[in-house]
Amino acid sequence: MATRGKGLYECTGLAERFVRDAGVGSGLMTAFIRHTSASLVIQENADPDVVADLNDFFGRLVKESDTWYRHRDEGPDDMTSHIRSALTQTSIAIPVNQGALSFGTWQGLFVFEHRVTPHTRQVMLHVMGE
Known about the structure:
Elements: E1 7-10, H1 12-22, E2 26-33, E3 38-44, H2 48-61, H3 78-87, E4 91-97, E5 100-101, E6 107-113, E7 123-129
Antiparallel strand pairs: 1-6, 2-4, 2-7, 3-6, 4-5
């Protein structure tokens, strides 16, 4: 999945298609992001202000500073990206019911990019069930 820098990128449709194509009626889908400076979150996908507020909050919570951290090999957002990833999740399990992911009404799956520059992120999906 391509990102354009810091922010949340919805990948709900990708996960839904994966489950549908797998033909599983009941089970569990796991999503795993193969990176240490991006994460996965389930969040509201109806109001874009939620995404904006989350971005703002994490910006205040983990301020970027190239003087606070030792690890900054890839720039001032290097260690802060790892911290943001540690505060969120790299793996999420979602129940499958009647062939569909069991999201709540306003829920969606997002890649949470913590780096300033664009990246290509690998999200692995796995489904088990019957």
